[in-house]
Amino acid sequence: MSGLTSPQATAALSTWLKYLEQLHTSAIDLGLDRVQLVAQQADLTKPAPCVITVAGTNGKGSTCAMLEAILLAAGYKVGVYSSPHLVRYNERVRINNQELDDSEHCLAFASVEAARGETSLSLFEFGTLAALTLFKRHQVDVVVLEVGLGGRLDATNIVDHDVCVITSLAIDHVDWLGDNIDVIGYEKAGIFRSGKPAICGQPHPPATVPAHADDIGTEFYQVEYQFDYQVEADRWHWQAGAFTLTDLPLPSLPLPNAATALMALSVTNLDISDNNIVEGLRNARLPGRMQRVSEQPLIIMDVAHNPHSAQYFATQLAKIKVQEGKHNVHAVVAMLHDKDIAATVAAMRSSVDFWYPASLKGPRAAVADEILLHLPPDCRGFECPTVAFDQALTQANADDIVIVFGSFYTVGQITTHLKL
Fold it and tell me: Which residues contact 66 (CB under 8 A, 6 or more apart)?
C-alpha cells in the first residue's frame, strides 16, 4: 500500500503490527510465490537442523505443545511457531517454551522488511518470516511449525522440513478451503515431501491424502496401520511395528495427538529416551485447550470453534461430570460468523444446561443473536464474552462447571478478564 512509512527497528511492537496490518490488501492471501522469494533471499528456508511441520483442522497446537515438551525433556533447544494468539502477539513464537521480548520481534520484523524490497506480504507471511528469522538467530536445534491455514499454499510450506504431520481432517475455513473433504485433504497433504516421512493422525482420511503421498513418493505413516495406541485405565500404550511403549501417563492434551506426536518423533534422528517421553507427556500444557482455571466452580476454557473440536470437548465434559461428580454446565460461547455455528452448538447441546451466548466485535464476528437461533427459546444474549462470563459465575454453584468456548477471541478475552 502506498504512503506507508516503515517503522524503525526500535519502534514499539504495536506500531509494527499496525504497519503490517496495512501493508497488504488482505489479511489472508494463500500462495507461496511472494513469501518464498523473500525467504530464499533471506536464507530462511531451513531455520534449524530439524524441522517438523504440523497441519490439520484441529489438534495442531496441542500436537506442537507435546512435541515441544518431549524435545525439551530430551535437552534440545526448541523453537515453536503457532497461531493465532490468545492475548499477545508474542505467544506466536516460543523458544524453549518462553516468549520473546517485544524488541526481538521488532528486530526480526525490521530484518524481513529490509529483505522483502518491493514484495508485498500479508501479516501472516511477514510474521512467519520473522519467526524463522528468530529461530535462526537463536540457533535452535529443532523448529516445530504450526500451519496457519490449509497446508499447500500456507506460508509455512516454504520451509524445507524433515517431517510433516496431519493431525485431523474436517470441514472448516470454508471461505478459503471449500466444503469438500477430499479437496481439504489434498490441501493439507500439500505439505508432504518426496522421500520424507509424513504422519497422519486422522483415522480413515479422505483418499486424496494417501493418494498424494503415493504420487510423490512420501514415506506415509497412518494411524491404525503403521502406528496405533490403546488406553487402559489411567495409562496408555503406543506401538509402531515391532516397537512398543507401555504404561505411558495420560496427557492433559488430546491423546490422539500425543500418539501422532510420538510417531513424528520416532522417524527423526533425534536422541529421545522413554523417560524423556514420559516427562514430556506429563509437562505438556497449552492455554485455551481444556484449560482448568478454577475449581469451585470448575472453570474450563477451550478454543473449540467447529463441530469436530466441539464434539471432543463435549466428550471430555461428560467424563469430568462423572469422574468429579459435577452438576450443571454453564456455557459461555461467542463465535465468528464464518464458522459452522449451528453444528458446533449442536455438538454441545446435550452437554450444556445453561447458555450464555455473547457477541464478538470485528469484521468476522458473529453477534449473540446468530447463536441464539440455535439455542432454546428462553436463552438471552450478552453484549460481550466478559459480561456473559460474569453472569454465568453468578448463576453457577460450587459443584457446577462453567465453560468458555467458540473462538480464540472468546478465550482470549476471558483470559485477560481473569488476569491469567
Answer: 251, 253, 257, 258, 261, 280, 281, 284
d(CA 53, CA 166): 9
Q: Quick one: residue 42, left, alpha or beta (phi over 0 = left, psi -120 to 50 = alpha)?
A: alpha
* pLDDT one-digit tens code per residue, 321-355: 999 999 999 999 999 999 999 999 999 999 999 99
Contacts of 256 (CB under 8 A, 6+ apart): 59, 167, 168, 201, 223, 229
User: What are 208's three cell numbers?
Assistant: 486424496
pLDDT digits (tens, 9 = 90+) for 348-401: 999 999 999 999 999 899 999 999 999 999 999 999 999 999 999 999 999 999
Q: What is the pLDDT of residues 169-186, one digit of tens each?
A: 986 555 555 578 999 999
Instruction: Determine if residue 389 is left, alpha or beta; phi over 0 gives left, psi from -120 to 50 gives alpha, anything else beta.
Output: alpha
74: its cell numbers: 530430551
Cell numbers for 349:
447441546
Cell 523417560: give the residue: 275
Residues 6+ apart with CB under 8 A from 225: none
Identify which of 111, 218, 97 has the alpha carbon closest to the alpha carbon of residue 161.
218
Q: Tell me what pLDDT residue 178 has.
A: 57
Q: What are phi and psi of 409, to 5 degrees?
A: -65, -40
- Closest residue by Cα to residue 223 from 56, 80, 50, 71: 56
* pLDDT per residue as tens digits for the range 96-120: 999 999 999 999 999 999 999 999 9
∠ Cα 216 220 225 (to 5°): 145
Sign (positive/negative) of CA torsion 124, 126, 127, 131? positive
Q: Locate 6 and state its grid cell.
A: 516503515
Q: What is the SS3 assignment for 234?
A: coil
What is the model's pLDDT at position 3? 63
What cell numbers appear for 50 in the block? 530439524
* Predicted local distance difference test score (pLDDT) of residue 28: 60
First-to-last CA distance in the chain? 37
DSSP string for residues in 255-303: HHHHHHHHHHHHTS-----HHHHHHHHHH---TTSSEEEEETTEEEE--
Per the document, the length of the chain is: 420
